[in-house]
Amino acid sequence: MDLGRVDLNQLVHLDVLLRELNVTKAANHLGITQPAMSNSLKRLRSLFDDPLLVRTSEGMAPTELALDIQPAIREILFNIEKVIKPDRDFDLNSSRVFRIMASDYAESTLIPDVLSAVRKQAPNITLDVLTPSDVTFEDVEQGRVDMAINRFDTMPQSFHQKTLWKDTFSCLMSVDNPLVSNFSLDNYLCASHIWVSKTGFGVGVGVNPEDVQRLGWVDEALVKIGAKRNISVFTRHYQVAMLLAKQHDLIATLPSRVARLKSESAQLVLKAPPFPIEPIELKMAWSPLLHHNAGHQWLRKIIATVADQNECLD
Q: What is the rounded CA–CA span in Å between residue 199 and residue 285?
């Protein structure tokens, strides 16, 4: 490739095109016209001798070469920006929208305090909180979603990640539940239970009560001691599980941080599980494309600080 043909603006345009996967949206982001962006894409295709973006039934998709060079393009632009503008402090007057995929668990236990901290520092910032079913790994990898906060079994190796905290489990039940005064393992196993969990990305599917290996942490812990509980209702929402726990004969075994949200309710009581359950980890994951972005670094610091402060309260 003749470096004399390379225009820095073209690399900026390519970076935005590969994030937006849409010529019109990329043009709007950069404040140029759609025809100008189309012409820029045409020159980029000639420069790299590759289509870079191809039209599919689901919209524009990056070619293999585009995916290969995307991290390098982002790194080049970051290094140039660092030389030209060494002061990379985030503008606290920004009206930027940050899109965060958060599980129901994270949304209940972490996001309220994060929002409070964000509003104190940068009141014009907007948080768009998405559910795991709204997002794919590709959305995060391409930077269309700023970060994912969840408990992950697996994630792409390219992702950056940080463990925010570890959490134990507690049992939540009605004060009228007859087991409150005699909460043994045998009585736990004879009781009716509320199952709640939703991890990962993508649209969920129905649960098979017999597929214990896919039921999650509580049921896997029971398998280790050769036991199985009787699940009466399946839900993907912790708030719903806590409401259902008010019924006199149901037990919800939940991460302790969620269960403690109802600890002051006169209708509910918390109990330690009568068997060991491995703690869970809440993680924050983000794309290498956004790793050096000043605004992203600012938000990650806020989230990590809030998580540390909450851990100190445990």
A: 14
Task: Indicate the CATH number of 169-278 among 1.10.10.10, 1.10.1740.10, 3.40.190.10, 3.40.50.150.
Answer: 3.40.190.10
Task: Determine the length of the chain.
Answer: 314
Strands (E) located in the chain? 53-56, 59-62, 97-102, 126-130, 147-150, 160-167, 169-174, 192-196, 230-235, 250-255, 268-271, 280-286
- Tokens 């390519």, located at residue: 14
Residues 6+ apart with CB under 8 A from 292: 74, 75, 78
Q: Does position 205 have pLDDT exceeding 70, yes or no?
A: no
pLDDT in tens, 156-197: 877 889 999 999 999 999 999 999 999 999 999 999 999 987
Cα–Cα distance, 39 to 278 (Å, whole number): 56
